[in-house]
Specification:
Layout lengths: L19 E6 L3 H10 L7 E6 L2 H10 L4 E4 L8 H11 L4 E6 L4 H5 L7 E4 L4 H15 L5 H9 L4 E2 L1 H12 L5 H8 L3 H11 L13 H8 L1 H10 L4 E2 L4 H27 L4 H13 L2 H9 L1 H14 L3 H9 L3 H11 L4 H9 L14 H14 L18 H4 L1
Parallel strand pairs: 1-2, 1-3, 3-4, 4-5, 6-7
């Protein structure tokens, strides 16, 4: 069963008649012809346009809306990084993908911010199609165009200030080891998500999706990690309200507890080592949607809390009323844009579904994460470990932002 096939509570209907617009950009005319032939079976689902330059692509976008832009990196006059930056300014909700055979380190680093994913040439049709469809399937779940744009705009997630400080100090320390740096990354949802996003870029040519932070740092290597810190503005510290910062700390603590519980439950149920790491990763990132909202749009959290207090509805439904999606859907969409594996995305998307009971037999990452969430919630005096974290009494979030 695919992500899109699974039921989710109160999900907005998918407008199957709406045609998706996909824009492909490459200065190689022969390659564009090859893409046109390769993607011919998608002509009834996608309205595809093929542009030979960044200027031509932007001209097309001035006339027609675009849902997805797939661009080469190395082009004359305007390279892929510059084009995707402009695409993000014109249409923040657009899904932005680099498809390139160009692998010079400095140039690829430029795409980290403006692009959601980096795919390497040659790229077979199935992989390209599934990459685009996976993100589109999850985007359909987000009812409000503003939340679609908000998620798509994010190039990175903020880290807790003290963890960010420890991370930068470890990166700058010539004696730091892989384990030292990885242990810092594992303490923060934003750092972990960003590092795993970078690791799973096709630029690094890894044979499988990486879900373990230590393995990610080991495969990237310390030199590459330092280059990423120096060349790409992808690591940043949360600089907002101290009260929101404290809530982010609480969220990270619960995420780490969920990750540890999910790993133990997966091992106890004899899942494969790969599934164990998927469960741990999904547990750590299961609340990434809340991190996005608390750090970037705390007013949305405040509005959802007010709806819960006023109407007595569930936090998930209140989130949907406030922003057009719940935090699980928003978080899963971000991870799909960033190229995370389907089992991790699926576990983040469905770990909260009220119409799904925790299974007696756990045989995948989703089952382990749902069981871990139940366990962590029970150990937190019944408080929800994955809904918007409540501030102290008489301390409304809006006044803290």
């Amino acid at each position: 069963m695919t992500i899109a096939d699974r039921p989710t509570s109160a999900a907005p209907p998918i407008a199957v008649d709406d045609e998706v617009s996909v824009l492909f950009v490459d200065d190689d005319a022969m390659l564009l012809q090859g893409l046109r032939r390769m993607l011919h079976p998608m002509r009834r689902e996608w309205n595809m346009t093929f542009a030979g330059s960044g200027k031509e692509a932007l001209s097309h976008m001035e006339k027609e809306p675009v849902d997805v832009v797939v661009s080469d990196m190395r082009m004359p006059e305007m390279d892929g990084a510059e084009l995707l930056c402009k695409v993000g300014e014109i249409n923040p909700a657009a899904i932005r993908i680099v498809l390139s055979g160009f692998a010079e380190n400095e140039a690829v680093m430029k795409t980290v911010g403006p692009s959601h994913q980096y795919l390497a040439k040659p790229c077979d049709a199935d992989h390209l199609i599934q990459t685009i469809k996976r993100s589109l399937d999850l985007r359909h779940r987000l009812g409000d165009p503003r939340i679609k744009a908000f998620v798509a705009e994010l190039g990175s997630l903020p880290a807790l200030p003290h963890v960010y400080h420890d991370f930068m100090a470890a990166i700058a320390d010539p004696t730091a080891t892989i384990d030292t740096i990885a242990s810092v990354i594992e303490r923060d949802i934003g750092l972990a998500a960003t590092v795993l996003k970078l690791t799973n870029s096709a630029y690094f040519c890894l044979p499988t999706k990486i879900t373990d932070c230590r393995q990610a740092v080991r495969l990237l290597g310390l030199d590459t990690m330092r280059s990423l810190v120096a060349s790409a503005c992808v690591f940043r510290s949360y600089e907002g309200s101290p009260r929101v910062r404290d809530r982010l700390q609480s969220l990270c603590d619960k995420a780490m507890a969920t990750a540890a519980s999910a790993r133990r439950i997966a091992m106890e149920n004899n899942l494969s080592p790969h599934q164990v790491e998927q469960a741990c990763c999904a547990g750590l990132l299961s609340h990434v949607g809340i991190l996005m909202l608390l750090a970037e749009h705390p007013d949305c959290c405040s509005k959802a809390e007010e709806i819960v207090a006023r109407e007595g509805i569930s936090p998930l439904e209140a989130e949907r009323r406030a922003i057009g999606a719940n935090h699980a859907e928003a978080g899963a969409y971000l991870l799909s844009l960033w190229g995370f594996s389907d089992p991790v995305i699926e576990a983040v998307l469905h770990h909260h579904d009220p119409d799904q009971e925790c299974p007696d037999a756990i045989d995948d990452a989703l089952g382990a994460v749902r069981a871990a969430h139940t366990e962590v919630t029970a150990g937190n005096e019944g408080a929800c470990a994955a809904c918007i974290v409540k501030p102290p009494k008489n301390d409304p979030l809006a006044s803290a932002s």
